[in-house]
Design a protein that fits this description.
14% strand, 8 helices, Peroxidase, domain 1, 177 residues, 2 domains, alpha+beta
Length: 177
């Protein structure tokens, strides 16, 4: 992640914390980033050098003023003024990481070969919550049938591979040596 994304995310996390509205800011940032990424016409409009900053801010205001806090809208305006709106998706990713770290929330991805029941998910979350000394866990769960069996857990840049596919791969590596 570029440094600029981290810096803006840090500033927004502080602003959200002062307003005691981290989750609300996260939701609004997600909506703005999704619109930027998902609507090509909007992205092209906001990135165009031919469109004035005032018109870009008017567009953002018309899209988000009804539901966004004034501070969040001003943050988007600042990104337009500083020609940093292109970093919005990366700022959102950094914001989530920083907010979770600040609140001791462990963000993880649980990938399994088959659907897991609530008991299994709870055990996995609790194990890693204790291991990482977190207050709570935010987990994204997905299915990957190529794992053949077992579970793979991704926390940040660390991968805990307990899948059958991973074990076979390790065995193949051992045999090859």
């Amino acid at each position: 992640m570029p440094l600029v994304e981290k810096r803006y995310a840090e500033a927004l996390v502080e602003l959200a914390a002062q307003a005691a509205a981290v989750e609300e800011y996260r939701k609004h940032l997600r909506e703005a980033a999704a619109a930027f990424e998902g609507v090509e016409e909007l992205r092209d409009f906001l990135l165009s050098a031919k469109v004035s900053r005032k018109i870009k801010k008017d567009m953002l205001n018309s899209l988000f003023a009804q539901e966004f806090k004034k501070d969040m809208l001003n943050f988007l305006f600042l990104l337009v003024d500083k020609d940093r709106i292109r970093y919005l998706p990366g700022i959102e990713i950094e914001f989530i990481k920083l907010a979770e770290r600040k609140n001791k929330i462990l963000g993880m991805k649980i990938i399994s070969a088959a659907p897991l029941d609530e008991t299994q998910l709870s055990k996995i979350k609790e194990k890693f919550r204790r291991q990482c000394n977190a207050a709570s866990v935010s987990a994204e769960v997905s299915i990957d049938r190529t794992l053949l069996g077992g579970v793979k857990v991704v926390i940040g840049d660390k991968v805990f591979d307990g899948s059958l596919k991973g074990r076979i791969s390790k065995l193949m590596d051992l045999v090859a040596k």
